[in-house]
Specification:
It contains 13 helices and 14 strands. The protein is α/β, with parallel strands linked by helices. The chain is globular.
Length: about 350
């Protein structure tokens, strides 16, 4: 059920200083009749609509014996839209809000309003600023390390003399800095970073334009690899390389294990992606949200054994999940084994021959 965008107008309240999480708490312990607001940031990243939302909704229903409800909204990459959606959730007095922020800083005044209304806020996938109660994501610096290491390994003895392009994510997303830090830790000193770009709103169109600039600046034959922070941008990068006449793709990284990216990996167009279990992340967020509302402190603490810091809040309880480098070699043991995609979904007629080559059937 999508939240209405005609939200009650709330006065924005600036968040300053540093607080020690967790900020909000439910005004009273609830039974199974919980209402959970889920706010996801965009539709460019295929996983949010295809995986995260339905998995989250199913887990809330399971945890509440079918009595809990999820109010869902997608901001479609607009901070203004997400602010309205968040304010509507507060106005409707949901019991807890789970938010993956379009802009971590911009959402902070709304998180503050939720705290004032006694509504706990769980940051999902991206760390929001403001007095949030918990954070569920993956080890984001490790994501960048896995991507950077894959490039160095793919280039082998040629790495030191190779020029690469870095296509980083949206600077408004706090995960971007962590991905970049992890990747640079692996790449610097091993390859030459010829061009580096930030990509507003993780937009594939922006990534494609930046790749066009990189090709013009470096020369298409001089690009040995492309670090792409996610799969949507990887697809755009590969499209632009094809347009420039490349037939044998250099190593291109990705993240999120989108279906089209897995197919590109099977066919050899994309070198790898970082697989982050959507099931574990969405299930974990649902469990933490329900536990928080129902006052199950022991279960909540057992799940949130890590802690993270944001610019506004220290020692935020966190669940940080591991990641896997997905290549041709382990498609079957990762996304197929976990039920994310079936072999039939991956091995459509266009990819049947490539699937057969790697024994995916």
């Amino acid at each position: 059920m999508a939240a209405s965008t005609s939200a009650l107008a709330l006065t924005a309240c600036g968040v300053t200083g540093t607080v020690v999480g967790s900020g909000s708490s439910a005004s009273s312990k609830k039974g199974d009749d919980v209402s959970v607001g889920l706010l996801l940031p965009d539709k460019n990243t295929a996983r949010f609509e295809k995986s995260d939302y339905p998995i989250f909704k199913k887990e809330v229903a399971s945890l509440t014996h079918g009595k809990g409800k999820v109010l869902y909204a997608n901001a479609e990459a607009s901070t203004t839209t997400q602010a309205r959606q968040f304010q509507q959730m507060v106005h409707e007095k949901v019991d807890v809000i789970v938010v993956d922020p379009v802009d971590a800083r911009a959402i902070a005044p709304d998180v503050q309003k939720a705290e004032e209304a006694g509504i706990p806020v769980i940051a999902y996938d991206r760390l929001a600023q403001g007095p949030i109660d918990a954070y569920v994501s993956h080890d984001n610096e490790l994501v960048g390390q896995v991507q950077g290491r894959a490039i160095v390994q793919a280039l082998g003895s040629k790495a030191a003399h190779s020029k690469i392009v870095m296509m980083n994510g949206d600077p408004a997303d706090p995960n971007t800095a962590q991905f970049k830090k992890g990747a640079l830790g692996e790449l610097q000193g091993d390859v030459r970073i010829a061009k580096q770009y930030d990509t507003a709103k993780w937009s594939p169109a922006v990534a494609k334009a930046n790749m066009k600039d990189a090709i013009r600046s470096i020369g298409v034959n001089n690009i040995a690899a492309v670090y792409s922070a996610n799969d949507g941008m990887a697809g755009a990068v590969i499209d632009q390389l094809k347009k420039a006449g490349v037939t044998e793709m250099p190593p291109v990284t990705g993240q999120d294990a989108n279906l089209d990216a897995v197919q590109r990996i099977v066919s050899g167009e994309q070198y790898m992606t970082v697989y982050k279990s959507f099931l574990d992340e969405a299930d974990g967020a649902a469990q933490i949200a329900v536990d928080k509302v129902q006052g199950k402190d022991i279960q909540f603490d057992a799940l949130t054994r890590d802690t993270v810091h944001s610019p506004t809040t220290k020692k935020i309880p966190a669940l940080l999940l591991p990641v896997v480098a997905l290549t041709k070699a382990n498609v079957k043991s990762t996304v197929v084994a976990d039920g994310v995609y079936s072999v039939a979904e991956i091995c459509t007629p266009e990819y049947e021959a490539s699937c057969a080559e790697i024994g995916l059937k």
